[in-house]
Design a protein that fits this description.
The structure is a single chain. With about 170 residues, the protein is of the alpha/beta class. It is built from 7 helices and 7 strands. It has one domain: Rossmann fold (3-Layer(aba) Sandwich), CATH 3.40.50.450. The chain is globular.
Amino acid sequence: MERAAATPRVYLAGFDVFRDNALSHGQHLKALCQARGMIGLYPLDGQVPDELEPRAKAQWICRANMDAIRSADVVLANLNDFRGAGEPDSGTAFEVGFAAALGKPIWAYIDNDRSLLDRVSVKTVGSAAYCANGFLVEDFGLNMNLMLACTARIVVGDPQACLDAMLASGQL
C-alpha cells in the first residue's frame, strides 16, 4: 500500500551513459521524469569509489545499477541501435532482462519502426535472410530481437513520448 502511494521510480537504462555529455543528458532525462511526477534513476547517479581497481569499479557499477533496478517501479530503456544496425547496447539488454526477471514493467523507445529484417543489411538465400556475419536474421515482423520486443512495451519516438505513453497507460 505504501509503495502504491509513493512517487514512481523509473530506472533510465540505455547507452546514453556513453555520450560525451552523459551527465547532462542524464539530468535532462531525470527532469523529464520529474515533470511527469516521477523520480528518474540514472546509472551515473552514484559515485564510484576512486580507490577501486578497474575490475572492482566495474563490479561496483554493476551492483549499483542492479540495486537501482530492484528499487525502481518501472524501467525505461533506450533500445535504439548501438554500435551496429538492429542491435541495442548489450548492457541495456541485460538490464531489460534483469527487470523482466524481477517482474518489473518495462517501457522502451526506439526511433525506427521498420522491422529488424528491414534495418539489418541482409543477404537472402531462398526464404532465409543472413547478416554480414552469416547469421540468420529472424523475421517476426518485429523492430528488434523478439526477447526485447516481447518483454517491453515499445514506443516509436523519444524518451518524452515513451514517458507520456507510460503515463497514459495508467500502469503507474
